[in-house]
Write a structure and sequence with these properties.
heterodimer; A: about 120 residues; about 50% strand; B: about 110 residues; mainly beta; 7-stranded mixed sheet; 4-stranded antiparallel sheet; globular
Chain lengths: ~120, ~110
């Protein structure tokens, strides 16, 4: 059974750095073809892909947010960490991590974590 | 980056209706398209992958079709559990884009 769970702060002030951790089980990030991504969703709005890391440590980021994001993995802990610098109230939303499948879709999702940015 | 445009944004329908949601890409997709269902307060659930393949456990009343720049998700006979928001998602050149969503409401 594949599970993913997001953890991290739920309230930040503007300009702070957000660090989210995705802890997963049921698969390994050393298996060729496997990836873990981060997707967010502002309240009442659409899903937005943020970043993705592959088994071979290749990383890709959303163009608009590229300069603010860093994604890393710790295969020994089965964790993927997303860092977002200089948060703003527009970064408020639910942040999901998800497992990337071979066909470019996200087959398994965490429950999400609601992050609020407010002064 | 490839943009994905879904239509309609909102769809009102009744139980038993056949409904179709369209997703258009800003350029021809060289890779695959997926569809997700999301209910309030829940994570998205994969319905369709590779444009037309049904994900595990998804009822056969859901189907996907299309190629190039235009793709559709069809629900053949709406059930009460199907009223939710639906998103398409493309993967191309290490970039992933979601559509803006279609909210399926009870008429």
């Amino acid at each position: 059974q594949i599970t993913l769970k997001e953890s991290g702060p739920t309230l930040l002030k503007p300009t702070q750095t957000l660090t989210l951790t995705c802890t997963f089980s049921g698969f390994s990030l050393i298996t060729p073809g496997v990836g873990v991504g981060w997707i967010r969703q502002p309240p009442g709005k659409a899903l937005e892909w943020l970043a993705l890391i592959y088994w071979d440590d290749e990383k890709h980021y959303s163009s608009p947010l590229n300069s603010r994001l860093t994604i890393t993995k710790d295969t020994s802990k089965s964790q993927v960490v997303l860092t977002m610098t200089a948060v703003d109230p527009v970064d408020t939303g639910t942040y999901y991590c998800a497992r990337l499948r071979d066909y470019g879709d996200f087959g398994d999702w965490g429950q999400g974590i609601l992050v609020t940015v407010s002064s | 980056d490839i943009q994905m445009t879904q239509s309609p944004s909102t769809l009102s329908a009744s139980v038993g209706d056949r409904v179709t949601i369209t997703c258009r890409a800003s350029q021809i997709l060289s890779s695959w398209l997926a569809w997700y269902q999301q209910k309030p307060g829940k994570a998205p659930k994969l319905l369709i992958y590779k444009g037309s393949s049904l994900a595990s456990g998804v009822p056969s009343r859901f189907s996907g079709d299309g190629s190039g720049t235009e793709f559709t998700l069809t629900i053949s006979s709406l059930q009460p559990d199907d009223f939710a928001t639906y998103y398409c998602q493309q993967y191309s050149a290490y970039s992933y884009t979601f559509g803006q969503g279609t909210k399926l409401e009870i008429k």
